[in-house]
Amino acid sequence: MSLLQDSDTENFIPTIDDVRDAARQLSGHAVRTPLLESRLLNERVGGRVLIKAEVLQRTGSFKFRGAFNHISRLNKDQLQGGIVAYSSGNHAQGVALAATLNDTTATIIMPADAPASKIANTQKYGASVVTYDRNSGNREAIGEKLCKETGARLVRPYDDPWVIAGQGTTGLEIAEQCREKEILLDAVLAPAGGGGLIAGTALAMKSDMPGAEIYCCEPEGFDDYRRSLISGQREANVPGPTSICDAIVTPMPGELTFPINKELLSGGFAVTDAEVEHAMAVAFSDLKIVVEPGGAVALAAVLSGKFDATGKTITVVTSGGNVDPAAFADIVNRHSV
Amino acid sequence: MSLLQDSDTENFIPTIDDVRDAARQLSGHAVRTPLLESRLLNERVGGRVLIKAEVLQRTGSFKFRGAFNHISRLNKDQLQGGIVAYSSGNHAQGVALAATLNDTTATIIMPADAPASKIANTQKYGASVVTYDRNSGNREAIGEKLCKETGARLVRPYDDPWVIAGQGTTGLEIAEQCREKEILLDAVLAPAGGGGLIAGTALAMKSDMPGAEIYCCEPEGFDDYRRSLISGQREANVPGPTSICDAIVTPMPGELTFPINKELLSGGFAVTDAEVEHAMAVAFSDLKIVVEPGGAVALAAVLSGKFDATGKTITVVTSGGNVDPAAFADIVNRHSV
Q1: How many helices (H) and strands (E) in chain A?
Q2: Matching CATH number, A64-154, of 3.65.10.10, 3.40.50.720, 3.30.2320.80, 3.40.50.1100
Q3: For residues A84 and A152, is the Cβ–Cβ distance under 8 A?
Q4: Reported confidence tier of residue B136, pLDDT bands at 50, 70, 90
Q5: Which of A109, A220, B4, B205 could form a disulfide with A86 if both were Cys (CB 3.0 to 4.6 A apart)?
Q6: Cα dihedral B289→B290→B294→B298 (10° resolution)
Q7: CATH fold for domain B13-61+161-334
Q8: Which residues of chain B are at the A interface, by a Cβ-Cβ cutoff of 8 Å?
Q9: Other Cβ atoms closer than 10 A to B211
Q10: What is the CATH T-level fold of the domain A8-61+161-334, as seen in this structure?
Q11: Does this model's pTM top 0.95?
């Protein structure tokens, strides 16, 4: 039974029911990633930090959840023309694998300067990759054009109800895993690019563990979500700044994600590249996991003290681990933790 | 109820009943580590590889299991003088944390050339560290002397029935996690130093999934277990060779572990440093986990083809992730996978 028969229904704002439905759809396909804890990390922050390790999700990031939730609902006619997506690399891999598992093809539009391993792995998962210039090209326009020419279906990285609902299964699992350990969370922090992961997670948490405050975390210079939550309307980033957090340097909050996050989030934090690198080195040392820059911003917000975790019990989502070896090596080498 | 009241009973060879008893003892204290899978890794070897990620165990290696299983059974009198252990670094951290959790002190005898992070973290977990020269010192003698002087209790790294039984809970979990996924394993491969992990795991697997062959993996030049399984008696390593696998360069099979492994193992594999480094880089890239050299020998045996995984379904134990950042950075930088 597909919910996507009528294209007019595609731009609704998902609810907790859609997140629960996504959990059923993903059962047996996505990994129920572990909630990791380290005594050494707890001692660093003076609180209890549970790490939702989405780096251990299929394709190395949470993005597989949303991509599979969308693509696996399509019928044969809808799958026939293949899938198109634009992505800096994590949605790319999620869509590539989800398309392969559903016996269709995928073409992914990626910035030419995306990490080499993200491009290579997108191809290994079975997709064709088309690169564009991040500064001069318009990935949305390239995507729409490709879909019109080929009859392919576009799966957007965050402004898509099934993608948001799929990412939200991360939050359902956090609440469930905490209940299993008889833990009540004070807060959940997660990275935000377009805001799909944090929106879906907020829907889940506000239903299943409503006492937890939800915060989004972003790189400095790309804190459009933090500023939008303050102003109450979607604010764009000012051109100019750069960041090592390639996965989440999106221009502004999503159309579908913002109304959810505006209602449910308690605020946002912006972190520097140096704080992100330190967080990656701590994750290496204390947790033995590989976290990419964009996946480490929430941990950076906690370790930097911008979010004060003293005496609190929180969950931090480390959302992805797709980082080139040379970049990772350089970072853990330079940061003594 | 302590099983350790009578010191005459301490040198028995554990059975599956002791492993099951250890699982009860560890419940709520040790992590039930995940069984990870990567499509990219499966494609590399042409089979299905499930990674038992003991790098995600408390203290970053399986050693916490055995240490906690021993120390948590001691009564107040036995705990009063504190704990002594000798270790290259992983048993050290496991004992340090287990002692702290059981409200006693620990003194750990470590080689002066152990990875700096292993020494630092042993101290962070609450233990005192005494270093010795790996080439000229005798760690067993230093340990016995310290125990006599202080009334402390020695917890050996592998020739200890509760330690072997504790490590064996790794195997119980592998069998249980595979049954949950309706998977029948063809083989389990795990690293071997003194042979505690592989012995305990073999006890568990031969009881709960008897069809799986069990293999131990070691560094070249330190393949005492592989050779001992062939000859049928405990063979020592010849002095001279070096290895990056600091965790498992033990001199010969343990007295208590060898009878178990001689009966239950199908054989062993020896891998080179280069094969180990390649395996660490693959674990970084495909699995997003940090594996130390000694923890990667079983994965190296599979990736090198020394164990042919084609068409098979196997579990590989990655037993520890305690590696210095500079060493890890150098390795992932040099190995393109």
Answers
A1: 14, 10
A2: 3.40.50.1100
A3: yes
A4: confident
A5: A109
A6: 20
A7: Rossmann fold (3.40.50)
A8: 33-34, 36, 39-40, 43, 55-56, 58, 60, 97, 117, 121, 124-125, 281, 284-285, 287-291, 321, 325-326, 328-330, 332-333, 335-336
A9: 10
A10: Rossmann fold (3.40.50)
A11: yes
Question: What residues form DSSP beta bridges with A128?
Answer: A107
Residues 6+ away with beta carbon under 8 Å from B77: none
Min Cα distance A35 → chain B (Å) is 10
Joined together, the tokens standing for residue A182 give 């008889």
pLDDT digits (tens, 9 = 90+) for B69-105: 999 999 999 999 999 999 989 999 999 999 999 999 9
CB contact under 8 A, B289 and A289: yes
Task: Compare CB distances from A288 to B40, B97, B321 and report the shortest one's residue.
Answer: B321
Task: Give the model confidence (pLDDT) of B267-277 as tens digits.
Answer: 999 999 999 99
How do the domains of chain A map onto residue ranges?
A: 8-61+161-334, 64-154
Identify the residue whose tokens are 């809970």: B169
Residue B241, helix vs strand vs coil: coil
Tell me the mean pLDDT in the region A65-82.
97
B325 phi and psi angles, rounded to 5 deg: -55, -45
- Contact criterion met (CB < 8 Å) for A40 and B124: yes
With beta carbons under 8 A apart, name residues in chain B contacting A124: 40, 43
Distance CA B84, CA B152 (A): 6
